[in-house]
What we know:
The longest helix has 21 residues. The chain contains 18 helices and 5 strands. It is elongated, with a radius of gyration of 24 Å. It is α/β, with parallel strands linked by helices. Helices cover 55% and strands 8% of the residues. Helix 8 crosses helix 9 and helix 8 crosses helix 11. A 5-stranded mixed sheet has the order 1-5-3-4-2.
Amino acid sequence: MAVSGASQMIPVDTIELDRANPRIRKFLEMYVGEPTPEQIFLALGAGNEEESEGSSIPTFQKLKQSIITHGGIIHPVILNCQSDGTLVCIEGNTRVALYKDFLQRGVNGDWSNIPALIHSNLEDTAVHAIRLQAHLVGPRPWDPYSKAKYLHELRHIDDMPLAMIVDFCGGRQSEVTTFIDAFIDMEQYYRPVVTEDGAFDPKRFSGFAELQKPGIKKALNETGHTLTDFATWVHEGKLRPLNTVRLLPRILKNEKARTIFLKKGARAAEMALDKPEADLNLQKTPLDQLAYALNSKLAALPYEDYQSLRSDPCSATVEALIDVQNSLTEFLNNLG
């Protein structure tokens, strides 16, 4: 009998994949037989987003080649030894599948045993905690859509208390509820709009996360638009890039900008919005002085002004600050 928490080398042919994992379960219901490592990787949501430049998140091929090159894995997989002695992989399904695949195909190397951390008779809550820590706040995160799907299942299918989910995630309650609400909206409004097989795009999730910000749904309602309209705009690419969702309140309330948006999209409509002219003297000010001035301005901002901005997150001032944040982030990333 395995000892709880013990780390040891375990024969891969004695390990079962976690068929209860919500990322894999639905996939297995669609296909017959043992899934391939590539299929498991995709089912876990790890392949839903394109790898960004400089990203530390490995693609499937990089993970596969790295394991072959180094002759094994660095971080042990996590197994649950059930009461009947069955070893179920609750974290590391792709790596276990790769070992099984290498062993079956005779890939050069020793793939018969895999490093594993074993627990005994874990309760469902403990299993959820391990998944959340590994894939929501850990070094191998799922894509946002898969995170949201799992959080939704925990909250609305498994009835896990919201406070417990937040504790496991180590974040804020508002972040968790935003993910869950965005998933619900995406499934309810976007999925029906996408009529072509395979056209559902999980990468559009960030647009529905933006939709949860204060003022956006209200602006849709006040201008006679629905969430189905919003989903259609996302599908048609009118809200591209997806962070332009935050411009919707100003676009929809501006007749000229709204007309342009419905024809050409948010980026074109943004040009029609009223923006203050940049002070030529300020443009000549050295960057360090501008940065110090902005920091001082924010530090000395009266509380009532802060509250006013907080109550209107779609205002021109907040929009301008977000633009500065995005530009600074991109600029500093390029410097690095």
